[in-house]
Amino acid sequence: MASPSRIPIKIFVEDVGESRGELILFLAPKTVNMIVKALPLEGKIVKLEGEIYFLTPIKTGVEKGKDTVEPGTIAYWPQANAICIFYEGMRLYGKVNIIGKILENLEVFREAKNSGIIRVEKG
After folding, report:
1. Do 67 and 92 meet the contact criterion of CB atoms below 8 Å apart?
2. What is this structure's pTM?
3. Is 39 within a domain?
């Protein structure tokens, strides 16, 4: 059931597949609102161990910052103006704004290719 505080999204990973998730307003309201207004967003994947991220035109600071994440966490990284998707749980060196979670097909991020295209849209 849809809720105004949970915004469904689709995430397309070039040459790999599609995933679904949700942005959750109460986790970081200012950040989530800025991202929702900017959708769709697209960028080049940077793949690190346990996560992928891509740069966005969104610029905002730390909001309810966290330095630990669970698998499936969607976060905004203020230091890089980037959206991160974590396919492994980890402790981070800096703080991120947790903005949502992956609901299905987390494996596409593990299989994503560095420099591939990722697209996030309402869904």
Report:
1. yes
2. 0.96
3. yes
